[in-house]
Specification:
six-stranded mixed β-sheet, globular, 474 residues, seven-stranded mixed β-sheet
Length: 474
């Protein structure tokens, strides 16, 4: 049995696989997000407790030895821990917006662009640079008490194994890692005013760190690997490794990734280059802030249940009777394929005649347009895989294929956990057949007529987005 652990933003999961990549069992636990006044935080003990719970459930349901385990999880944010890996404050999530004024200032004074030109990272309020700088200005004693500023999976790895604090090149990619040398750029640390906090940055394990578990959650002595984080793990789990091929993750975050061997630090600063376990290979990432979270908000507001979405999408035609949604719902604005901390969602064309079906379709269309924008900016030229919670809706996948105007290789199941296992197998020299493990469950073809309609709709989306960005800056 091979176990993948995926410590997500709102859900922690563990999945057991056999040697052929078949899912044997999946366990999940929700974890809370504390939102208040633009801050988004998580209780690290709750998160770690959820990890132990899902591991206990999976190993109980599938008896037998665990050959190895792979660990992945949400990226960015700041997870401050002491020397024992225990929290010194709640984790600041990647969705956190408290540092937006810092990002605004760095956008204005050139710091933002200078960092991008050095590392390929377009900072946003919830990434470690701005958050650490904000904490330095508002909670310096918290930083004094911390031994390391980790990422989510790193905290879990340290607790499961007792290993020293460490991260990997994928998580370290935003915003301090030089993608050419695969080590921290101290010039960026200095630009952000954090030189005296340089010691908080966890050492980068390249290749990813391995260790044996202590006995919590998994049997003592289980081999486990720490990483990569969830976006590149999903790319591995979906088989996206050839340059030009892409992955769209329709999850809480709407993430567009394209494999590349070209490092281009020119053009508009946006997204990031995620370093992978293969030097000279990156993922050009455009992780938009909000994906299924936008639809969740609309469903909650209208009182519609998730299982009704497919039926509602069939009730209203493309264009949703004139209702349009700019799906930028995150309290920290947007980070890809542009950075606009003050951008907010907009619903237009709504009248007393508008129905819940119109609102649901318009939201799904808006998310699709945002995805098309991100994939275009990331340089997609090859095949496109799609994974995440959104794949559970066949109607949404058909709509998405139409909006994007291309076939979708749908990869269902626990793709991030699958990628974490494949990364661990590579690290330990265990021969798993990646092609079999990453085979798509379906291919969804676009309808030519609807695709042509949505091509025009996409141009309208870009115009409305440009106007909204101008208003956000006013």
């Amino acid at each position: 049995m091979y176990v993948g652990i995926d410590v997500g933003t709102s859900t922690v999961k563990a999945a057991a696989f056999d040697a052929a990549g078949r899912e044997l069992a999946v366990a999940s636990r929700p974890v809370a997000l504390a939102l208040h006044g633009g801050t988004v935080e998580q209780d690290m003990e709750e998160v770690y407790g959820a990890v132990l719970a899902v591991l206990g459930e999976v190993t109980e349901r599938v008896p037998g030895p665990v050959e190895l385990a792979g660990l992945t999880g949400q990226g960015d944010g700041v997870w401050l821990v002491d020397t024992d890996g225990r929290p010194v404050r709640p984790a600041a999530s990647w969705m956190d917006g408290r540092a937006h004024e810092l990002v605004d200032r760095w956008l204005a004074d050139g710091t933002f662009e200078a960092v991008f030109r050095r590392t390929g990272s377009a900072m946003f309020p919830g990434c470690p640079g701005p958050l650490l700088a904000w904490l330095e200005g508002h909670e310096p004693k918290t930083l004094d008490a911390a031994a390391a500023a980790l990422y989510c999976k790193d905290m879990v790895f340290q607790r499961l194994t007792g290993a020293a604090a460490a991260t990997d090149v994928s998580d370290a990619s935003m915003p301090f890692l030089d993608p050419r040398t695969r080590s921290y750029d101290n010039g960026v640390v200095e630009l952000l005013g954090l030189t005296h906090r340089r010691g908080l940055l966890a050492p980068v394990s390249d290749p990813i760190a391995t260790a044996r578990t202590l006995g919590e959650g998994l049997p003592a002595g289980t081999r486990i690997a720490n990483g990569p984080y969830d976006l590149p793990a999903c790319a591995l789990g979906a088989g996206v490794t050839s340059p030009g091929d892409g992955l769209l993750i329709v999850g809480t975050c709407l993430a567009s990734l394209v494999a590349t061997t070209d490092l281009d630090l020119t053009g508009e600063p946006a997204g990031l280059y995620i370093s992978t376990d293969r030097p000279g290979h990156w993922l050009r990432a455009m992780p938009a802030m909000v994906g299924t979270a936008a639809l969740d908000w609309v469903l909650s507001t209208t009182g519609v249940r998730h299982e009704e979405v497919d039926g509602l999408l069939a009730e209203t035609p493309p264009g949703a009777h004139g209702v349009r949604v700019l799906p930028y719902f995150a309290p920290s604005g947007e980070r890809a394929p542009f950075v606009e901390p003050r951008l907010r969602a907009e619903l237009t064309g709504v009248s007393l005649e508008s129905t819940p079906a119109d609102l649901v379709r318009a939201t799904c269309e808006g998310i699709g347009y945002a995805a098309r924008h991100c994939l275009q900016a990331a340089g997609l030229t090859g095949t496109l895989a799609v994974c995440g919670g959104g794949t559970r809706s066949p109607a949404w996948m058909r709509l998405l294929a139409d909006v994007l105007g291309r076939p979708l290789r749908v990869v269902e199941g626990e793709v991030g956990a699958r990628g974490a296992v494949l990364a661990a197998a590579e690290r330990y020299g265990v021969g798993l057949d990646a092609r079999t493990w990453t085979r798509p469950t379906a291919v969804v073809e676009p309808d030519p007529a609807r695709a042509a309609y949505y091509t025009e709709g996409y141009e309208d989306h870009l115009i409305r987005l440009s106007q909204a960005r101008a208003r956000a800056r006013a």
